[in-house]
Amino acid sequence: MIIVKIGGSVFSDKKGEPENFDHETVRSIAREIAKFYPREDFIIVHGGGSFGHHYAKKYGIREGLPEDWDTANFRRIGFTETHQAMLRANANFIKAFIREGLPAFSVSTSSVFITENGEVVYGDLEIIERLLELRFIPVLFGDVSIDLAKGIDILSGDQIITYLAKMLEPEKVIFLMDVDGIYDGKPGEGGLIQNLPKGDIEALLERLHCTSAGTDVTGGICNKLREAKKIAEHSEVWFVNGKVPGRLGGAIRGDGFGTRINIGI
Amino acid sequence: MIIVKIGGSVFSDKKGEPENFDHETVRSIAREIAKFYPREDFIIVHGGGSFGHHYAKKYGIREGLPEDWDTANFRRIGFTETHQAMLRANANFIKAFIREGLPAFSVSTSSVFITENGEVVYGDLEIIERLLELRFIPVLFGDVSIDLAKGIDILSGDQIITYLAKMLEPEKVIFLMDVDGIYDGKPGEGGLIQNLPKGDIEALLERLHCTSAGTDVTGGICNKLREAKKIAEHSEVWFVNGKVPGRLGGAIRGDGFGTRINIGI
User: Domains in chain B, please, with CATH?
Assistant: First the structure.
């Protein structure tokens, strides 16, 4: 089984109009997956892009539910608005996958997972596992979450993947990004790292100044690397450019262009 | 806690255009609930109306997943199309409730429940219970389901309610219909039954010729009465007209016009 994460910046321009969606790119991603399905099983997880972040920020979802009733109810409304925006992004994915004959099925992240300070602490995977057995392609997404510490929070797509990788032990996890992979420095400046031994991630995190706890709420490169380090305990990890046709297929086959972290090395 | 079922015929004309939605009626329902929230906790469950049934029928979802790959994949696509149609109906509800200041939160039924021949055999209510604790109004809906016997099936709103009533023991379950309640005969012909002792339901089922196993997939009056009989073990049950403003409020207060089944009598 292969888990594919479609980053928000791959299908959407966060700085563009609200809820803009790059249909062409997503269609091309669906086409690549269609070449391997049903020989391979897939789980898709997508980010928020220009859909969820706007609401999450506007309503201060990450600050949790306060005591004051009016502020709390404002946030509750924001919590539901954020989820509805994510469902609209998700509907675009489902449509694109169906068009390519793929039985992609929407699983509402917030109906399944509970977090504690944004990290999954509980998630019943019974339905996702049965969907896979029945040869569906479950599609999850970054979403709001019930949070044990704060009442409510945001659950990022990357966090979902770390949890799924731990529980389901996929053969491979592929992160689609809007750059070619992980760079030794700023993207475009440092060189692209094509083979990243798991043991080198810690040193890379230091070189990239990812030392303090991640403040990048959307899951920037520091968070991605930290999660990748955890995932590499269970599964091979790839970072490839989701905007360039063929790169996803290369990672699925195993001979693609991008950054590869071998399992357990 | 009060569970309100909004029947498909209340918010939608099943014989009308695909995906027609009676915004005015739903707005009026949201307004009545807003008079009691947050004093009362609510769970809302809505039916399919002109949204889900069309796809469920077209793709033969209730027939399950066959061996043949092509037929099975046609049904898988139908399964996901049906869910997406129900999410569109659900989005209309969420919007109407938010407009009245109610923090209604969409819970995807198919992400939570597993059925066996259309009856719930598994459903993790952790998230629904926590949503209630945090003063959200969870909104569920009739949906497709992973089914232990058939692979896939339909889970009706009424079945969800039977399960929720058993597990959560609400104070009251209110079914909104497009008629005034349960009649002793055909609606409009027999007289409206205002007080229905639980012990009389069996005899009424016989008088209404509901003897054989229900063939009405959409949950007609026979199915409703059978479910009501089970629910009345745990909770007071009301059947009221959801199209007439004030009737829902009457049932919530307990002095309304419609059919009332007292708990355990």
Answer: 10-168 (3.40.1160.10), 170-265 (3.40.1160.10)
